[in-house]
Amino acid sequence: MVNQICIPKQTDYMEVFKSDDERFGGSDVVNASTFATERTPFHNQHYSLEMNVPLLEVAVLEEKIVERGEEDES
Length: 74
Hints:
Helix content is 0%, strand content 36%. It contains no helices and five strands. It has strands at 2-7, 12-18, 34-36, 47-52, 59-63. The strands form two sheets. A three-stranded antiparallel β-sheet has the order 3-2-5, with no helix packed on it. The radius of gyration is 14 Å and the shape is globular. The termini are far apart. The mean pLDDT is 85.
C-alpha cells in the first residue's frame, strides 16, 4: 500500500528500520533505498514523500547525509 507521508523540510530520507522485515516474520516489502521529498503539501507540512507501508508496519526514516562528491552535478 503506497502512503503519502508529511515531511517538515525538503531533504532525502533513508529507511533505517521496518517491522515488516523478513527477519521479524514480515512480508519484506522492499522500498527504494532513498526517498526524495516533493513539494506537495500534506497535513500542514510543505513537503511529503510516498512509500510502501504494509498494514501494521512501523517504519523509521532518517535524513540522508550527502557525502562530498554525491551532490547532483547538474
